[in-house]
Amino acid sequence: MNPKLTQLVVLISFVCFGQQQDLSNSIKKEIDPLRPAKATFYSAVLPGLGQVYNKRYWKLPLIYGGLGASIYYYDLNNKNFKRYRNAYKRRLAGYTDDEFQGVILDNDRLIDGMNFYKQYRDQSMLFIIGTYFLNILDANIDAHLKQYNLNQNLSLKPYMDHNPIVSDHHFGVSLNFNF
Asked: What is d(CA 175, CA 14) in angstroms, rounded to the nearest whole number?
């Protein structure tokens, strides 16, 4: 495809789609300075509630999926850690009837198994805490951005120039700031 034709298509797409004005911007919205604080509080009390308050319902499956998967793996790794730990403790007490006797695991392998599952259990807890805090942070930032003022003082417009001497076209975008 001709590069000049590609530039023209990009310019036309800027003109057609980039300059659509939202009718809700023409109506002055009252800014609520407590909106981010409310969204943050709601997400801290119940994960996802701040996203519901901000009307970002599509984020709920992401939040609960992240929390659910982290909790599931925490529980799984904790159960396996306890299995290895209990078998090791029973061997130290002199019992030989643990569940790993048939697999022929010595005490060093039991300690390695305990450390392995403990490490992944701890990482899963970090993912739970991280997902919880990201949920709160997302609700706060989204509430701030919902009140962001977009008006005509700041505009992005396509730019086209024709140089008649060399018969060349120049395409671009201009950023205008009026004050």
From this structure: 13
pLDDT greater at residue 2 or residue 171: 171
Distance of alpha carbon 141 from alpha carbon 59, whole angstroms: 13
- 42 close to 56: Cβ distance less than 8 angstroms: no
Two structure tokens written together for 48: 């996802």
- The model's pTM is 0.66
Tell whether the model's pLDDT for residue 28 goes beyond 60: no
For residue 75, give both structure tokens. Answer: 């529980």
Beta-bridged to residue 176, according to DSSP, are 155
Cα 5 to Cα 134: distance, rounded to the nearest angstrom: 44
Length of the chain: 179
- In this model, does residue 10 exceed pLDDT 60? no
The identity of residue 153, as a single letter, is: N
> Do the beta carbons of residue 54 and residue 142 sit within 8 Å?
yes
**What angle is formed at CA 136 by the lines to CA 130 and CA 142, rounded to 5 degrees?**
125
| Closest C-alpha among 175, 177, 170, 176 to residue 11 | 170
- The DSSP code for 28 is P
CA–CA separation, 24 and 26 (whole Å): 5
